[in-house]
Amino acid sequence: MDSPILQRSTALNNIPSRKFQEKLLSAIHNCKICSERDMKYKSVFDGLCQKCSLVNVAFNRYYEANIPIEYWDLKMDKDFHGYPGLLAKYKEIVADLNKTYVSGTAVCFAGLHGRGKSLTASCILKKACHKNFQCLYTTLSDVVSVLTGAVGEDRFMARKELLLVDFLVLDEFDNRFFSSDNAADLFARTLEGVFRTRSQNKLPTFMCTNSPNIIEAFTGPLKQSIDSLMSGYMTVFPVLGTDFRKQGAV
User: Domains, the chain, ranges and CATH?
Assistant: First the structure.
């Protein structure tokens, strides 16, 4: 499936370009075929084998989607060791991504730290990237920073991307990122507009929060706004289990 071209916002991309290049080069240098190529090629990316060509395409899409590099090589079936219900939910979502897109699936993964929420959401985006959907991973902190600090074109493009990207992941949804009541109020109004537009257009949205009860993490008008949005648009999926980071797992 080919999506119409959406002009991407650089304000919402925080992956260092040098790290991106290093990741690509590492994959090529670790390939026996490509690491022994004839030096006639002007660029290290010329004449790649089929496998490395696919990796190159995939990594470019992950970079554009702002998926954290730490998740690029991880796979749910192999690297996820958390709550079985979360793995089952992931498989349900990615089993038919065209159906997920058409239905406008919206899920909030809610649970304590280290339960694999970010990995799950990132792997959903990676699958969607492979299906040529336009994807965006961002955090509440980055959204608040851009929408309260960016000016002019940067803020306009960032908001448009949040509204229109095919698959959106909003990670680290936590009130600790609001530095002031004004920031919280602005974000509440912006979030309401983003969710309303995405809901009306049936665009898939996934959130991750460390609060078992996301509504109770907020107060005042922001709480009321989020409560209304969540109840009318998004399903909350409780993520159980223990913190697997402490056990060396994802």
Answer: 12-65 (no CATH), 74-247 (3.40.50.300)
